[in-house]
Design brief:
It comes from Hexamita inflata. This is MYND finger domain-containing protein. One of its GO terms (cellular component) is cytoplasm. GO terms for molecular function: zinc ion binding. By secondary structure, the protein is mainly alpha-helical. The protein has helices at about 10-15, 30-50, 55-65, 70-95, 100-125, 135-150, 165-190, 195-205, 210-215, 250-255, 260-270, 280-290, 295-300, 305-320, 325-335, 360-375, 410-425, 430-440, 465-475, 480-500; strands spanning about 225-230, 230-240, 240-245, 385-390, 395-400, 450-455, 460. The chain folds into 3 domains: about 1-205 and about 410-440, no CATH class; about 205-355, no CATH class; about 445-500, no CATH class. It has a 3-stranded antiparallel beta sheet, with no helix packed on it. A two-stranded antiparallel sheet has the order 4-5. It has a two-stranded antiparallel ribbon with strand order 6-7.
Length: about 500
């Protein structure tokens, strides 16, 4: 094993063989934390193999031992915990402030587990999709990430994390944003790979193509942010886990960066799926078409085909007044009494595709009402022998004492109490954590990870020479002043001692 190698093949085999599925109530257990640590090492090794253009033996081991199913299952479990159980659990923790230290570490591990799994899946998806039976469920998860990117409610402002709830909200916001950016890689992989009909139908019905186009044409792009540096507003873009400054503002319109490129390639793949679009959706594509210029086509020649597809789509809607989809959606709107489709804040009309099964709902409701009336007319003495069947056999109500099942709220409370018990039993070795944090590089004045410090005072950290030169005008006023002050005080002390007749040596000087 080389010096920069993270895992041996035999070590990875043992870790992958031991991967198991976890239910929500099992999150935070010792087995879960052990698996979480193993997955972090496997993820780093997989990224190293990809970065050095080596054999992706970590991903192949997941295929060999059929563990992608367990990973995706745990991904959905962590997502379910974050969206459904976290609010209730935070309510329990507010009444136990003495558990906040353990809770912050344990809960962050659960939240971070979702990001680690998604990152590992994205590493595999660079070349091909993972082999799993949960492909349809993974597509549902990615749909939630597209919706999250459309809402774009991520906050990048520094907040007061003095309370556990504020700290967890900040961590959740940061991880949710990073998971959304990572999900774009998987969305591109889904769009460009051959998929089963079930998954294709789910992608079409979820309107992935329209949502990706909306993300690319939004006024406030989800992968951009504006920050203030030295009282100057600067626009940054997100790439490879870091926020970077635009060297020139023209780059925003003429240069394709990685995140934007993933979404554009996804649009190209989704355009090849035979689908039908409404007029409002075609209007969104027209906006995206106008943003694809010659400079972008030179960087990504396939965009020429995408632009041609949008032009043909726009031309077809100029020739026909309405499509079959428009007619069907008008019919659905009339049935629901809706005059206009639901609109987003920026005025873009979102038209959902209604399944043809809706036409059968009215018939099923009538049958259910008739059966319910029959049940209400039966005396109580005969309520134990109910056996009502419809003529076509599609509906069957079997008799027996009806027992009420636990409500969702009761289930959530029970599981949260179980996780709260794990938090109380969680033992934290603070010295180990402090040693680990000491190894983390500090942040530079420009917001980037700093790996170098001032050679003179060794107090201020920088990401590179350019950053140090920019900061030198202010830093030179204080650089070395503290050290010089301490040396002056030592020299004064030495003179006082010498005046008393004592012989003192300091740094080899008498």
């Amino acid at each position: 094993m080389s010096d920069d190698e993270i895992l041996l093949n035999d070590q990875a085999v043992i870790m992958i063989k031991n991967i198991q599925k976890f239910q929500v109530y099992q999150l935070g257990s010792q087995e879960f934390l052990k698996q979480h640590s193993d997955l972090q090492k496997l993820n780093m090794q997989a990224h190293r193999n990809y970065a050095y253009d080596q054999d992706e033996w970590v991903s192949e081991l997941f295929n060999t031992y059929d563990k992608w199913d367990a990973l995706i299952f745990n991904l959905i479990t962590c997502f379910q915990f974050r969206t459904q159980f976290m609010p209730t659990l935070m309510g329990l923790l507010q009444k136990a402030p003495e558990q906040h230290v353990q809770a912050s570490i344990l809960l962050y591990s659960i939240l971070f587990h979702e990001a680690v799994i998604l990152d590992l899946l994205a590493t595999r998806a660079v070349d091909q999709l993972p082999q799993t039976k949960y492909q349809s469920e993974l597509a549902d998860y990615l749909t939630t990430k597209l919706d999250s990117a459309l809402k774009n409610k991520f906050s990048f402002k520094s907040t007061d994390n003095s309370t556990l709830q504020a700290e967890m909200l900040s961590c959740e916001n940061d991880l949710d944003f990073k998971c959304t950016m990572t999900a774009f890689i998987l969305i591109r992989a889904f769009a460009c790979q051959k998929l089963p009909l079930q998954t294709q139908y789910k992608i079409k019905s979820s309107r992935w193509h329209v949502k990706v186009a909306q993300i690319l044409t939004a006024n406030n792009l989800v992968y951009e942010r504006t920050i203030e540096k030295n009282k100057i507003q600067k626009l940054q873009y997100y790439e490879d886990g870091n926020w970077l400054d635009y060297e020139k503002m023209t780059e925003r319109h003429f240069k394709i960066f990685k995140t934007q490129g993933q979404l554009l390639v996804a649009c190209l793949g989704l355009s090849m799926m035979q689908d039908q679009y409404s007029k409002s959706e075609a209007g969104i594509f027209d906006v995206l078409k106008s943003k694809i210029n010659e400079s972008m086509i030179d960087q990504l020649p396939q965009l020429k085909e995408l632009k041609l597809f949008y032009e043909r789509l726009s031309f077809s809607y100029l020739q026909q007044q309405s499509s079959d989809l428009d007619d069907y959606q008008k019919k659905v709107k009339q049935q629901f009494g809706i005059e206009e489709g639901p609109q987003r804040g920026d005025g873009v009309v979102m038209i959902d595709v209604v399944s043809p099964v809706y036409c059968q709902i009215e018939t099923l409701n009538k049958q259910f009402t008739e059966n319910k009336l029959k049940m209400n007319q039966i005396p109580d003495s005969e309520s134990q022998k109910i056996n009502v069947k419809s003529e076509n056999g599609s509906i069957s109500l079997s008799g027996g004492t009806v027992k009420s099942s636990a409500t969702n709220e009761q289930i959530i409370n029970t599981i949260c109490i179980e996780i709260f018990t794990k938090i109380k039993a969680f033992n934290v070795n603070t010295q180990t954590l402090e040693n680990d944090y000491d190894k983390v590089f500090p942040m530079c004045t420009c917001g980037q990870t700093a790996k170098f410090r001032c050679a003179k005072c060794k107090q201020i950290w920088y990401c590179g020479r350019e950053c140090q030169v920019k900061d030198w005008k202010e830093h030179k006023k204080t650089c070395g002043s503290t050290q010089k002050k301490e040396e002056d005080e030592i020299q004064k002390l030495l003179k006082k001692i010498e005046q008393k007749g004592d012989k003192v040596e300091y740094d080899g000087v008498e």
